[in-house]
Design brief:
- InterPro entries: Transposase_11 (IPR002559).
- GO terms for molecular function: DNA binding; transposase activity.
- It comes from Clostridium disporicum.
- This is Transposase.
- This protein is α+β, with helices and mostly antiparallel strands.
- The protein has three domains: 43 residues; 28 residues, no CATH class; 72 residues, no CATH class.
- Helices cover 32% and strands 20% of the residues.
- The protein starts with a helix and ends in a 6-residue tail after the last strand.
Length: 183
């Protein structure tokens, strides 16, 4: 179009740009932004964030220190498996939460050590239905502390009719019935 219409592109101060030059420059700007965004999406991969200084790390909220200002910092999640007080396996990954790390951790232990543990002990951070189902499907026993364990011991929690744990289950109709008789 530049050659056909015989348009000269100008870049000096005081010169007017033609509509064609403005459009092409805007298009080039959009193209460079698209390339930049594609590169960022590729770098991020399956995660939600990445650090510009360490692309493999992800941002996690750090615990507060003396200044009382918990901050997001590029970090790694370190998981270690212990057997008879010895560390038997160790993984490092960019996952910000523990719930998503248990299944891959157990799979790689089983693959690498050629056996699987019959009892899995973990803290409340690993509690999820997916983790329980995976452990049950692999004929293992889960000892994972429920995340609501401490509060579930209170009278207020046990008398709360809105909690599903305090409702009766009707397996025939697959529904829960509260203490007031509502489904």
């Amino acid at each position: 179009m530049k050659r056909i219409e015989n348009v000269k592109f100008v870049h000096e101060c005081g010169k007017r740009k033609s509509p064609l030059q403005k459009s092409i420059e805007k298009l080039e700007e959009y193209l460079s932004k698209l390339k930049e965004y594609n590169k960022k999406v590729y770098t991020c991969g399956d995660g939600n964030s990445y650090s510009k200084t360490d692309n493999d790390a992800t941002f996690m909220r750090m615990k507060e220190f003396a200044m009382k200002n918990g901050q997001l910092k590029p970090s790694y999640n370190v998981q270690h498996g212990v057997d008879v007080e010895y560390i038997s396996w160790l993984t490092v990954g960019p996952q910000p939460t523990d719930t998503t790390t248990l299944i891959p951790f157990l799979k790689i232990i089983e693959y690498s050590l050629n056996f699987k543990y019959s009892k899995i002990v973990a803290d409340a951070g690993y509690e999820s239905k997916e983790n329980y189902s995976f452990i049950e499907d692999n004929n293992q026993i889960a000892f994972i502390k429920p995340s609501n364990y401490e509060i579930s011991k209170t009278r207020k929690y046990n008398n709360d009719i809105g909690r599903i744990e305090n409702m009766d289950y009707d397996s025939e109709n697959d529904l829960f019935i509260c203490q007031n008789g509502k489904t």
